[in-house]
Amino acid sequence: MTDRHDEGGAGRVVVTVQGVDRVGIVADVTRVLADAGANLVDIDQSVLRGDLFVMVAVADLAPEGGIPFAELRERLEALGERIGVQVAIQREEIFRAMHRV
Amino acid sequence: MSLTLHEIVETLSMVREAHLDIRTVTLGLNLQDCAGADPAKVADAVAARVREKAARLKAEADAIAREFGVPIVHVRVAVTPVANLIAAPAVGDFTALAGALDAAAREVGVDFLGGFSALVEKGTTAAERTYLEALPDALASTERVCASVNVASTHAGIHMDAVRTMGEVIVRAAAKTADRDGVACAKLVCFANAVGDNPFMAGAFHGFGEPGAAVSIGISGPGVVARALERVPDADLGTVAETVKRAAFQITRAGELVGRELSRRLGVGFGIVDLSLAPTDRVGDSVGEILELIGVERVGGHGSTAALALLNDAVKKGGAFASEYVGGLSGAFIPVSEDKVMGRAAAEGHLTLDKLEAMTAVCSVGLDMIALPGDTPATTIAAILADEAAIGVINRKTTAVRLIPVPGKGVGDVARFGGLLGEAPVMAVHPASAAALIARGGRIPAPLQGLGN
Hints:
The structure holds 2 protein chains of 2 kinds. Chain A is α+β, with helices and mostly antiparallel strands. Helices cover 38% and strands 34% of the residues of chain A. Chain A has 4 helices and 4 strands. In chain A, strands 2-3-1-4 form a 4-stranded antiparallel beta sheet, sandwiched between helices. In chain A, strand 2 (39-48) and strand 3 form a beta hairpin. The longest helix of chain A is centred in the C-terminal third of the chain and has 15 residues, at 69-83. Chain B is of the alpha/beta class. Chain B has helices at 5-16, 39-53, 57-68, 91-108, 126-140, 160-176, 222-230, 237-266, 287-294, 304-320, 340-347, 353-359, 378-394, 435-440, and strands at residues 22-29, 72-79, 113-119, 145-153, 157-159, 188-192, 213-219, 269-274, 326-327, 370-373, 399-401, 403-406, 414-416, 423-425, 443-444. In chain B, the strands form 3 sheets. In chain B, strands 1, 2, 3, 4, 5, 6, 7, 8, 9, 11 and 15 form an 11-stranded mixed beta sheet that branches. Chain B has a two-stranded parallel sheet with strand order 10-12. A two-stranded antiparallel sheet of chain B has the order 13-14. In chain B, helix 2 runs parallel beside helix 4 (91-108) and helix 9 (287-294) packs across helix 10. The longest helix of chain B is centred in the middle third of the chain and has 30 residues, at 237-266. The model of chain B has no long low-confidence stretch (mean pLDDT 94). Chains A and B meet through strand 1, strand 2, strand 3, helix 3 and strand 4 of A and helix 1, helix 3 and helix 8 of B.
């Protein structure tokens, strides 16, 4: 059971960004992740209904020496506030649990 | 296989727009080794156990909610039924015990602590009689302590002496909190076929066959089911059931994940996921709304029982596949006070006590959080308890009853309990007396359904 939930790697997170499209959102978010020592493994983005920008980044948190989850969350939320988009970070297991049998 | 953008956005909108949350994480604690003859020592031991074992419960639950991005609404503790923990107790010993548990619950940051309970479906011990005597005071003098009394089971039948006593206890508890619309009764559940792993309050307790400690999860998500059903407005009922099953699967998987992670971090075994659709008083988080989406104009109208039966069964089918261990009550909750659409239907006269009773034959609970006129006789309350117990006993299911006779209020008034307990319209009871039935006493024998061996 635990293995099934952990299959994506224990430190894997999903960062989602939603908001009005503007230049530089991807760069801003990936810079925060890089500064935290997180390794980007997948990124996808789309503009829905004309101007709603949605970006999803999957990243592995650094196993050692990186910043902890709670602090990364604070940095991303601060960024979201600064550039006016909604940024969330969640552990990947929740998505796998809900969408995969 | 990597996750798709659609899957990720769907989960996010379930939380943000459909109120997906984990309704409760409940830490069950076994107190049987705290029993003794010195009431003060017992009270100290149980309070110490709660303080020790639940010390990190709230903080870890909050951290997990943040990491997974799924809110956890309630964090609670359930303990072994307390009625027989003290040898030869006095009435005051139980109020002191309730006070000690209340203080410990406050200290560890849980909003309710359940298990101030007794299982008396076949008879009462001397200690249990003292416990029942003490119950109104214990509930009126504490804030977070929840009590439950099991008065019937399919195996034992219905203990009508206990049913009569509970009618009196409910009236006394209401009178002691008359200034707060009888709120003490909102923390008191009368059960048939009570289960020892139910994580939901006010009826949670840690059963006698349970381990030293266990984490159990009560899932929620009426809003998720409702939003899914909005996407299939013209589909036939097979598709409706399938849509509910899919939503229930997803909600349950979220609950299972949260429960296992919390269990790992606390170093405590994982108990069960309770597959219940528990509404909250927020708009869009209502079981009543689901029934209306299925096609009854107002909950309580004809067709409501059929729609609820479909919903209840589909939730179980979807959830059972999603969790390794399913338990507790597992079904849809229909509390009038905590569900906006149910409350409205009751206030408008569509939903009556009789229809609610019928609906409880096909869902997980009984008459939950029902406000009654303040002058309802204790024997009438006892008779309502007996009717619900009969439904549970014959159908081999749990029924739970929370009735609040609201002092000074009558039909048309609204009872306001404040905080988590919401408000409820006062509902009419039948005027015909059941006093003669209740006065007979004794036990209604176990039905043939109980002789399954």
